[in-house]
Amino acid sequence: MKRKLLEMKALKTYFHTSEGVIPAVDGVDITIYEGETVGIVGESGSGKSVTSLTAMRLTQGKVEGSVTFDGKDILALSEKEMRTVRGNEMAMIFQEPMTSLNPVFTIGDQIREAIRNHRKVSRSETKERAIELLRIVGIPRPEQILYEYPHRLSGGMRQRVMIAMAMACSPKLLIADEPTTALDVTIQAQILELMQQLKASEGTSILLITHDLGVVAEMCDRVAVMYGGQIVEECDVLTLFTNPKHPYTQGLIKSMPTLDTNERRLYSIKGSVPPPGSLRQGCRFSPRCEYAQDICHERLPQLETVEDGHTARCWLHSDAKEAIQ
Amino acid sequence: MKEPLLEVNNLKKYFPIKKGVFNRTVGQVKAVDGLKFTIYKGETLGLVGESGCGKSTTGRTLLQLLRPTEGEIIYEGRNMVGLPPEELRKMRKDMQMVFQDPYASLDPRMTVGELIAEPLDIHQTATGKERARRVDELLEIVGLSSRHADRYGHEFSGGQRQRIGIARALALNPKLIVADEPVSALDVSIQSQIINLLQDLQEQFKLTYLFIAHDLSVVKHISSRIGVMYLGGIVELADKKDLFEAPLHPYTQALLSAVPSPNPLIKKERIVLQGDVPSPANPPSGCSFHTRCLACMDVCRTDKPELQDVGGRYVACHLYAEV
Fold this sequence. Notes:
A: alpha/beta
């Protein structure tokens, strides 16, 4: 049995806004085992990014529930202790590599900072390690790139630098929040390949947040689908594409045009994504669901096991339905 | 026989790079460099390419939103380049644009009714009751309702805003619509709604589309023919079926193989290109793709390949040159 690396239980993150308190993440349970890549899929406002930020304690909002990382209770750590975890044991890469790099420091400064914050090493060793990291992520001429500023690099190169910084202390968990969304497909292919290589050589677990089901299919072992701040379905990647249970997952997969099919009309989920905080009774997806019954509009279904290792939050697949009715 | 609607000949658009106190022109960004293609009536021509390849500039130059540096744009037998503004305005009635960002392309201070009626006012095609009736009709056509006419853009979701953008483009019964990444900013579940709408409208109003996008699966779904652009030029132009079944140009091959497949059972051979797209301000000599090409030959470094007919499709590559 593999060891649990990150375990989130009944996680809730609230934001205080002018429209009141909004639960952006509303009761999420995710477990990531060692050496595993877990994907979180969802549309904008589904709470997928906030979930990952909460795991690193990077949100402003009020948090409930528990986050256990490598035996540590993340939510109970002091800010000082948290700083030894962040960037060291878990690291993060973001969607927009330009805004995540500091424009007034050179690439070398920023990578060296990441190393020296967590390791007691000499200046020359740090520099060597920085060059080695840049070489690992496939940057040509690393000795010179060290002295360049971020604006001199292209989007793909910047994302490589971000990955180099994240991998600086060989973290156990890498959280990648839409790492390739801002990149072109040929560059996306390069970055995904790089992440696969690093996972294989360093044994890093990856939490991959994305809206692109194609990326999920290529990268992930297990997938959680989020809608309205909750997980609606969780299973291994093959099951997700061959036997999805939740109507939302089914709709998402059917509505994507692909290179392999030739259908004239696309399936579409009616209506639009609810804004965060527009809470309602019953299943969050029920207003858009074509199978919605009375019970769906009245009571919120729980995440239940459909088959081994496959859970779904839907009355259609719930054992409790008959009992309630 | 297919009837051409718009022909483009040797279209070029250079942007000057200016520097110094006197704003001297020190160089040029060759955003679009010598395009030649035809759009036929009733078809959807897709343009794909990575960022910076000039696909959006092409779309804008076609509508003369950007003045071409050189070349001809022949619409129904008339060259649009260099027409006086008044003439151009009349011709533009037939061609409209749908933009990428539905958040930025609607004036926040105008109601939806005003936004949709704006083209009607400019071309004075409808006034008074007729104008109001047309606005309601357009809203219905794109799947909104006449109740929405008095609201402002910010009250709508991304998908609904894109519908408003489409209603605006339809207002003057155009023949050609240039859609520049119309679904890229939308969520997956909304994307398919807009794609279906665009296809329905095409059937209903016999529209011709130039569909610009970077997402190959979307372009494949909607287009009948597809042009692949790289660094300001078309490298391959073919029927959708030919292009996807047997891409000829090495860049098209790499591009197609790079798209992640949403089916975990299909494991395809991936060609991972090395390096980045060169800067269009300083394009490589010879074939613009030779710096990243896996099949690069000596001739590719020196001679620029022309777009040539290879069995009913067009490819710009020395691999297919007749010896």
